[in-house]
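Customer ticket, subject: "Can you confirm the structure for Squalene monooxygenase?"

Message body: Hello, I'm evaluating your service for our small team and ran a test protein. I'd like someone to confirm that this is what the system normally returns, since I don't have a reference to compare against.
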Amino acid sequence: MEFLSAALLGLLLASILPLFFFFSFRDGIKHDGDNNTTTVIDSKIPSGNDVRHAESSDDFDVIVVGAGVAGAALAYTLAKDGRKVHVIERDLSEPERIVGELLQPGGYLKLIELGLEDSLKGIDAQQVFGYALFKDGNHTRLAYPLDKFDSNISGRSFHNGRFIQRLRQKAAALSNVKLEQGTVTSIVEEDGNVKGVQYKTKNGQELTSYAPLTIVCDGGFSNLRRNLCKPQIDIPSCFVGLVLENCKLPLENHGHVVLADPSPILLYRISSTEIRCLVDIPGQKVPSVANGDMARYLKTVVAPQLPPELQTAFIASVENGNIKSTTNRSMPAAPHPTPGALLLGDAFNMRHPLTGGGMTVALADIVVLRDLLRPLSNLNDADALCNYLESFYTLRKPVASTINTLAGALYQVFCASPDPARKEMREACFDYLSLGGVFSSGPVSLLSGLNPRPLSLFCHFFAVAIYGVTRLLIPFPSPKRIWIGVRLITGAAGIIFPIIKAEGVRQMFFPATMPAYYRAPPMQ
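Agent reply: Thanks for trying us out. I re-ran your input and got the following:
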């Protein structure tokens, strides 16, 4: 096994890395130029005789737009560091979502680092220790590499709304946090610097709040992001969500991924009595629920591909009719560096939710931002604040780019395809992960946020491709098999290189070459 591992990685490095480094320098320099272009915000406070705006009398250090997972956790974190924080959230009632329900172990460690781990208490959260991968009647167990951690360290799955409400309660309990329900309508800008936001309260009053730093984290449907980044949003698929009751998973305390046709199905427990099922449907349209097309699709196409012990509960859930859907969005982080403002969470950076990495990325970003701001006692020093925030985009890359790239690549590999090369890649990925040892723990440590190393991801991805080619060429390398092998390698490159380019080659693999003004906090 060790010999096979060494041989695969050696062949990988010898055949792929020279070409990759060429593209790294060529595309990386171009991307660097794109990232250092400053765009002035064009959102202004509306003017007119019929509109009068009151000014907030409070003196805030930070305005946080949105109180979801990212916004509420950020408000708590900055307030614990002594900042006065104004949080403006459109709707403070408990949200109902079918995503954002699985927190990877790497994200749970960040939650502990922020002092927010007790937010998972009292909401019937479930521990998750790994994944079960199903394909064509076979399955394999992929355990998180948690041997070096305490027994309470694992992933967690839960109702998203319950978790968000606990985070909001934690933030609102601090005296220097003002949590307010309101809708932010625009950003206040003066001479190219963001000074605050204009918002409408629950009662319809229009107010303006000022602070030296405004952080926008109002989710994937943010109406403010267009001023602060390049919103290049891709919608590869939709999730159809159901809740299964009165049944057990084949492997409890594990997420389940079924490599179905046309695309994956996810299952994981969100409470002691409920199992979330997410059916991925490629494209932007789903069958109609109203005319019964959705129920027929789920019963005839999806149900037969599920593990047998879940099919009865799945059909019962379909007949119950509580079917919800959401679009799956992907957007690389492409910011316009803007003095006085920052994007965070899904408003800034999204990836396909197949791997459940969104909350892990957001919490990791909050840790980076907290550490960056700690040395700054006065956020009104605009020059110093800009310098520190500029380095945020590079320092976040190891975690964010690893999880983003893996999510996008795995989704494409796991989707069914009539192409023989794509079929072989899918088979090779399942069998590679089933080998165990480093072939399993390596990719799972990347997915879980425990090993945020882009180069390790790159190596494992092409090791899967080379493993697939090796199987094709043994024992007899016929011309047809050689051709499929060539297409498998080029197809793998066609999947991962565009994702890496969008993430930023230099930021991912050569962060030391990026300008940064970060200084570690002084020793106590």
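A couple of notes from the result: The radius of gyration is 24 Å. The domain at 54-123+158-232+331-395 is CATH 3.50.50.60 (FAD/NAD(P)-binding domain). Feel free to reply with more questions.
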